[in-house]
Amino acid sequence: MGLKISISDSIVQALRLPEQRIEQELRRELAIALYMQDILSFGKTRELAEMDKYEFGQLLSLRGVMQHYGLAELDDDFSYARS
């Protein structure tokens, strides 16, 4: 099951982004916001952002976001290491 979010045309047109980058940038911004609020783990937010661990970690660092590290992240690291 997926989720679609409807954004009005006037907002999409007001975004100062090339059309081909809009979805990618919105996914990244949503991922950062959800991570900052501890709503999603690092692994799930990087999945939402469609970035690998290193890229998403770099993005968080550039934004000044401290990385959380708990059991869920440790489990993600173990799963990643096994693959």
TrEMBL record:
This is Uncharacterized protein. Belongs to the UPF0175 family. Pfam families: UPF0175 (PF03683). InterPro entries: UPF0175, UPF0175_domain.
